[in-house]
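Entry for the shared binder. Reason: the reviewer on the internal report wants the predicted structure included alongside the sequence.
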Amino acid sequence: MKTWSEVAEVQPLASKIIMNSIKKGRISHAYLLQGERGTGKEAIGLLIAKGLFCEHKVGIEPCNECINCKRINSHNHPDVHWIEPDGSSIKKEQVENLQKEFAYSGLESNQKAYIIKDADTLTVNASNRILKFLEEPSKQTTAIMLTANGQAIIPTIKSRCQVIELKPLNPHFFRQQLIEKGMVKESAILMSALTNNLEEAIAWKEDAWFAEARKLMVQLIEIFTDQHQDVYLYIHSHLLPHFKERTEQERGLDLLLLALRDILYFHIGNEKAMVFFSPNDDLLEKAAMIFSQEKLVKNLDAVLHAKRKLKQNVQPTLVMEQLMLQIQG
């Protein structure tokens, strides 16, 4: 999404609020954009920044062609500072460096902006330092904070921001977009369950790593149904070597979550809701004989708990080993 008209199609209320502010020249000194992954937080944050610096705006729309727009898109504009987690959190030192930068006048104008990605990962000390920025707003400084977890933002920061709530995208609308881009229906259904980001979904569909990841999760379910004694060997010989980075491990757990959920849907006769398996897959019946409905509910909770542990930087091998033991029961 590179224009406000594109944002309006997927986030009509949020775009209307911000667009009205821009039209009236009343851009807030601080925004908190909160919404699930893929709802357009980053695109909206960049549009707000481009609205401040674009050299050739047409009404409220940035041109997306001038040097300022291009540098903002690539996170290289000298007066638009981009902060994201260093490891699992945004640290006090990162905010201190930002404060030093803001002690000087803008390099190309007196206007400055900063965008904080995953603002919910701010440490306590980092949050307190950001709070000082927000308590003493400059007319020429704009803060844009992005989060998928608004509950984790401390109330004193929230109270000093204009909170913009982004709604989850309509999955049926998103699936249709994917199909229009040439994706087959089965793949579109799976991708819409994993992401709301069009470019990301298309990239995953064409990625050999993702295809192998899905295949490995199917094999894992097969091992649970036929050779559960080989699970420990399988995770060390196949899963861990393939899912190396934390984001890859989280994606693998997302796929496992969908697979287990489909088995539960098969139990209760809700085949239309399936996204990972096709309703006539023989593996579903075999897996349903191994996993009771009660056990599946517990397993789904165990996978969600494992995802939380990964976000807390718990050692991935330990997380996977513990999860497999829980699923084995």
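Summary line for the report: The CA atoms of residues 194 and 279 lie 19 Å apart.
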